[in-house]
Amino acid sequence: MQHTKWLAAGMLAVLLASAAPAVIADPAVKIGYVSTERIMRESTAAKTAEERLSQEFAPRDKELQAMSAKLKAAADQFEKDGPVLTDAQRAQRQRALQEMDIEFQRKRREFQDDLNQRKNEELQTLLGNAQRIVRQIAQQQKYDVILQDAVYVNPKIDITDQVLKALDQNAH
Known about the structure:
The chain is mostly helical. The chain is 78% helix and 3% strand. It has a two-stranded parallel ribbon with strand order 1-2. Helix 2 crosses helix 3. The longest helix has 54 residues. It is rod-shaped, with a radius of gyration of 30 Å. The N terminus is likely disordered.
């Protein structure tokens, strides 16, 4: 009795394993692929977003660069003047340098946080538009599945160029 249960289970497993490739190879199943990485790198919308962010954050970046240069100049001057300073003067300058450095680090962190947040906002907008376009293409061209990540993709199922073209048309 136990033996027949195992035999039946084994036969069922063989049947399912042999049926799976038939489902995957079914010519009626239409599969597509989209490269998110290419969309992020090549689309006009991504390039426009990058330029927009660059312009938006350029003044703050310039301010940080000026602060960094000022901090470095003050540290160099302290190193140069160090041997001739009194202990009180040395302590005062060190404290001033530490305060400058703390302020610089705080502003740099705020800058990075704000920049990352804006990049994520732009990324979400771009990906949302791309996904909407992918769904439209899938419905219009009757795709059953469209993948975004894959180890290997045959170029004949890659629809990234169509998505890029549609994104670029929507950007104008």
